[in-house]
C-alpha cells in the first residue's frame, strides 16, 4: 500500500513510482490482465470500505485504491471482497481496483463512490449513585442522534435502550453493585448507524448496614463489623471526633482502628466502594472510648497517718478508683464519683498511687504512677547505754524509712547535735549535772526529718568535785573537804594505796575516814554520784600517813650512866627521836639508826622512855612510852675475907635504894658465884681453891634477873689460909 500525499517530498516520490508502473504496463501491454468491474462498495465500520467485484481470470491479486481528494490509500487483496482500512469516518471516498498478474497489472476500474459510516462515540461512564449510571460522550462528526443501551453484564435481565440527541444519558433504578454493559452508537441524517462503542460499568455499592462495634479498652482500639454490601470491593471505616479522623480499609466485612484517643466520642461510619466509586456513608454509630487517666494527681499528708489523694476531673469519666499500694505489698483502694480519696498511712512507707477513671467502655489507661514516701518513723526505744559527766551514748532500734538520724540535745540555751546513719549516737562536750532534752529525729532524703518525734530527758552525770583540803586531826582521822556544784549528789572519797583502799561518803562537802595504816602513801580522790550516774574522779591529792611506830623497843644498860635504846625501824620513818625522862631531868637523842645511846643517867631511878618516828616529809608519830628503872648503883668498898680453909666472904657497901646483888669470882680454876639473900651486903663463897688469882665483880641484878656486868672488877689472890691480898 502506498500513500500519496499532496505536496512535499512524499508526493514527488509517489509520482516517480507511478510513472515507473505506467512504463512497466506499457512494456507488457500485451499480457496485462483485464480491468475488474466494481459491483458494489459499502462501509460497515467507520475506518473501512468493503469492495466487491467479479473475479478476473489470471489475476493473482488486486489493488484497491480509496481517494478522498486529499489522501490516497491503497490496499493489496487476494480476492473479492476486499476491504480498504485506515479511512476517515463519515468521509466520501472514490474507490478503484486493478487486477494484477505475473504479466503486470491492469488499468484502474471505473471509480465507485462510497462513504464511511459515523465513528463510534467515545464513552465516559460513571456511577453517581448505587442505583444509577451516567453515560457521557463527545459529539460525533455528522451525527444527528445517538442510541445507548444497557444490560447486566451477565446477560440476565432485559435490555434498556435510550435514543437521544444529547451527549449524555443517565440510567436509573439500577441494582447496586452490579456490573452493566453499555453500548452506544451514532446515526447520521440518513439514519445510518455508525460504529458502536461498548464498555462495562458497575454501579457503586449501597452503604453497609448492621454496623457492630467492639471496643478494647486496654489497647484503645475498636473492631467494627457490618453486613456485606453487594458489589463492594472495599470498605472504609471512618471514626470522626472533634479533633481527629481515623480510618481503616479492608476487603472484608470487619476492620479494626487502633490508636483511639481516650476520653473521646467518635462518630463511626462505614463506606463501601468498588471500581464505580463509594457508597453513601452509613448511619453514624457513636463510640465513646474509656476516659483518660486522671491528671494533676496530688498527694498530701494532712497529718501523720492520713493521706489525701486528689485529681482533676476527666471527660467521659463516670466514677474513679484510686489504688494505694505500700512497698510491703499491701494494697487498698476507694471508689468515688468525686475527685478525692483519703487513706490511712503509716510512717516510713513508700506508697504507690494510681487513679483510674471508669465508664461503660471500661477502665481508663494507666496513667502516671505516683509514689509518696511518708516521714520515717520515730525511734521509740531510745536507751542511754552510757551517761557520763560530759557525754551521753544512746542507742535505739532502727526504724522504717530512716536513712539518717539527727540527734539533738538542748539544755535551754545550747544545742549539741550528731548525725549518723547508725542507730546510735554519742553526744559529747555536754555540761555535767545538766538536764538535757534529747530528741532523735529520723530523716529520709525524700521526706526530710520527722519533727514529731518525742523528746527524752536525760541528766548528765554530776560534775567532778574539787578537793580543797585534806587534813588530819589529833586522833589520826583524815578529814577531806571538797567543792562541788552538783544538786542532790552523794560524794565518795577514796584513799587508795599499796596497803589498801579506804572510803568515806557524804552528801555534804566533807567526810572523815579513819583506820588508815601508818607509814603509807595514798592517792585521795572524790567522786560524785546521782541518779544520772557517777562523775569522773576529782584530781587526786596525795596523802601520807604518819610513819609507823617501831617495834621491839629495848633499853639496855650499857654503863651505870649510859643506856642503849634500840628498836626495829618502822615503815616510812626516816629518823627517830628517843627521850629518857625522869624527875631528875631528860636525856634525848635524834638518829637515823635503829638505836641510840643516852648518857648522864642516874642509877636506881625510874625513867620514862619515849620514841618518836619521823618521816622524810617531817610527819612524826609519838609512839607509846614505857617505864625504865635504871639499874642499881654499883656497890662500893668491895672486900674479901677468908672463911675457913676453902671459903671466902665478899663484902660491899650497898648503894642507895634497895637492890639485889650477885657476886662472881673468876679464876683459872673456875667461876664461883653467890647470891645473897635480900637486904644483905655480903655473900659467902665456899670451897674455892686456894693459891689462885680471882677477879671479883659485885653486880646489881635487874628486876628481870639480868645481871649487870658494867660494875668495876677487882683482882684478889688467895695465898694462904687466913690471909688475903687485894689489888
What this model shows, in words?
This protein is an all-beta fold and 727 residues long. It is built from one helix and 64 strands. Strands 1, 4, 5, 7, 8 and 9 form a six-stranded antiparallel beta sheet that branches. Strands 19, 20, 22, 23 and 24 form a five-stranded antiparallel beta sheet that branches. It is rod-shaped. Mean pLDDT is 87; it is low at 1-13 and 722-727.
Task: Please outline what is shown here.
The protein has one helix and 64 strands. The protein has 727 residues and is mostly beta strands. Strands 1, 4, 5, 7, 8 and 9 form a six-stranded antiparallel sheet that branches. Strands 19, 20, 22, 23 and 24 form a five-stranded antiparallel sheet that branches.
Largest sheet, strands/sense/barrel: 6 strands, antiparallel
What gyration radius follows from the Cα positions, in whole Å? 80 Å
What's the overall average pLDDT, rounded? 87
Number of separate strands: 64
Low-pLDDT residue intervals, each spanning 5 or more residues: 1-13, 722-727
Our measurement of the CA-to-CA distance between the termini, rounded to an integer number of angstroms, reads 216 Å
Please report which band the strand proportion falls in: under 5%, 5-15%, 15-25%, 25-35%, 35-45% or over 45%: over 45%
Oligomer: single chain
Which outline best applies? rod-shaped
Number of helices: 1
Binned, the helix content reads: under 10%
Protein name: Fibronectin type III domain containing 7
Keywords: Signal
Domain Fibronectin type-III: 32-119, 120-206, 207-292, 293-377, 378-463
Signal peptide: 1-28
Amino acid at each position: 500500500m502506498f500513500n500519496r500525499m499532496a505536496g512535499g517530498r512524499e508526493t514527488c516520490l509517489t509520482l516517480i513510482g507511478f510513472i515507473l508502473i505506467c512504463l512497466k504496463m506499457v512494456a507488457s501491454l500485451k499480457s496485462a490482465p483485464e480491468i475488474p468491474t466494481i459491483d458494489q462498495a459499502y462501509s460497515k465500520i467507520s475506518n473501512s470500505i468493503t469492495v466487491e467485484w467479479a473475479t478476473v481470470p489470471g489475476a493473482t491479486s488486486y489493488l484497491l485504491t480509496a481517494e478522498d481528494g486529499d489522501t490516497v490509500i491503497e490496499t493489496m487483496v487476494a480476492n473479492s471482497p476486499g476491504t480498504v482500512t485506515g479511512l476517515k469516518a463519515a468521509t466520501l471516498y472514490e474507490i478503484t481496483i486493478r487486477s494484477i498478474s505475473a504479466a503486470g497489472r491492469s488499468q484502474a476500474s471505473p471509480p465507485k463512490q462510497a462513504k464511511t459510516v459515523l465513528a463510534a462515540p467515545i464513552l465516559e461512564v460513571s456511577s453517581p449513585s448505587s442505583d444509577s449510571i451516567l453515560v457521557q460522550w463527545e459529539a460525533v462528526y455528522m451525527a444527528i442522534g445517538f442510541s445507548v443501551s444497557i444490560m447486566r453484564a451477565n446477560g440476565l435481565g432485559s435490555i434498556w435502550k435510550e435514543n437521544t440527541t444529547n451527549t449524555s444519558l443517565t440510567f436509573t433504578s439500577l441494582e447496586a453493585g452490579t456490573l452493566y454493559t453499555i453500548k452506544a452508537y451514532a446515526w447520521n441524517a440518513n439514519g445510518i448507524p455508525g460504529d458502536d462503542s461498548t464498555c462495562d460499568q458497575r454501579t457503586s455499592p449501597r452503604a453497609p448496614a448492621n454496623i457492630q462495634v467492639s471496643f478494647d479498652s486496654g489497647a484503645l482500639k475498636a473492631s467494627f463489623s457490618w453486613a456485606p454490601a453487594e458489589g463492594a470491593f472495599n470498605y472504609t471505616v471512618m471514626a470522626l471526633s472533634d479533633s481527629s479522623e481515623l480510618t481503616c480499609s479492608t476487603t472484608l466485612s470487619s476492620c479494626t482502628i487502633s490508636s483511639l484517643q481516650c476520653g473521646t466520642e467518635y462518630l463511626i461510619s462505614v463506606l463501601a466502594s468498588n471500581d464505580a466509586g463509594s457508597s453513601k456513608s452509613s448511619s453514624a454509630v457513636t463510640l465513646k472510648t474509656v476516659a483518660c487517666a486522671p491528671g494533676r494527681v496530688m498527694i498530701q499528708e494532712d497529718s501523720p497517718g492520713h493521706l489525701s489523694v486528689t485529681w482533676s476531673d476527666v471527660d467521659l469519666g463516670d466514677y474513679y478508683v484510686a489504688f494505694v499500694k505500700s512497698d510491703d505489698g499491701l494494697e487498698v483502694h476507694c471508689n468515688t464519683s468525686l475527685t478525692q480519696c483519703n487513706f490511712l498511712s503509716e510512717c516510713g512507707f513508700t506508697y504507690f498511687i494510681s487513679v483510674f477513671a471508669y465508664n461503660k467502655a471500661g477502665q481508663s489507661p494507666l496513667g502516671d504512677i505516683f509514689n509518696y514516701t511518708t516521714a520515717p518513723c520515730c525511734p521509740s526505744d531510745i536507751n542511754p547505754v552510757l551517761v557520763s559527766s560530759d557525754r551521753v551514748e544512746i542507742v535505739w532500734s532502727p526504724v522504717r524509712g530512716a536513712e539518717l538520724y539527727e540527734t539533738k540535745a538542748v539544755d535551754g540555751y545550747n544545742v549539741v547535735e550528731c548525725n549518723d546513719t547508725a542507730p546510735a549516737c554519742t553526744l559529747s562536750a555536754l555540761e555535767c549535772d545538766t538536764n538535757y532534752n534529747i530528741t532523735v529525729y529520723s530523716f529520709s532524703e525524700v521526706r526530710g526529718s520527722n519533727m514529731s518525734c518525742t523528746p527524752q530527758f536525760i541528766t548528765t552525770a554530776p560534775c567532778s568535785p574539787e578537793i580543797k583540803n585534806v587534813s588530819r586531826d589529833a586522833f589520826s582521822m583524815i578529814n577531806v573537804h571538797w567543792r562541788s556544784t552538783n544538786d542532790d549528789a552523794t560524794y565518795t572519797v577514796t584513799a587508795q594505796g599499796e596497803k589498801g583502799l579506804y572510803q568515806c561518803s557524804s552528801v555534804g562537802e566533807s567526810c572523815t575516814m579513819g583506820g588508815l595504816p601508818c607509814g603509807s602513801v595514798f592517792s585521795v580522790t572524790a567522786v560524785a554520784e546521782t541518779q544520772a550516774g557517777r562523775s569522773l574522779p576529782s584530781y587526786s591529792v596525795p596523802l601520807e600517813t604518819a610513819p609507823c611506830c617501831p617495834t621491839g623497843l629495848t633499853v639496855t644498860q650499857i654503863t651505870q650512866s649510859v643506856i642503849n635504846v634500840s628498836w626495829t625501824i618502822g615503815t616510812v620513818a626516816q629518823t627517830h627521836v628517843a627521850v629518857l625522862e625522869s624527875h631528875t631531868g631528860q636525856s634525848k637523842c635524834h638518829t637515823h639508826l635503829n638505836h641510840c645511846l643516852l648518857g648522864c643517867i642516874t642509877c636506881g631511878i625510874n625513867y620514862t622512855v619515849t620514841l618518836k618516828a619521823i618521816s622524810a616529809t617531817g610527819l612524826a608519830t609519838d609512839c607509846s612510852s614505857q617505864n625504865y628503872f635504871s639499874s642499881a648503883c654499883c656497890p662500893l668498898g668491895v672486900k674479901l675475907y677468908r672463911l675457913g680453909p676453902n671459903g671466902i666472904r665478899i663484902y660491899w657497901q650497898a648503894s642507895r635504894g634497895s637492890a639485889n646483888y650477885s657476886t662472881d669470882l673468876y679464876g683459872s680454876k673456875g667461876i664461883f658465884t653467890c647470891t645473897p639473900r635480900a637486904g644483905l651486903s655480903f655473900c659467902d663463897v665456899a670451897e674455892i681453891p686456894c693459891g689462885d688469882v680471882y677477879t671479883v665483880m659485885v653486880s646489881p641484878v635487874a628486876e628481870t634477873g639480868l645481871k649487870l656486868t658494867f660494875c668495876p672488877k677487882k683482882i684478889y689472890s688467895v695465898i694462904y689460909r687466913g690471909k688475903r691480898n687485894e689489888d
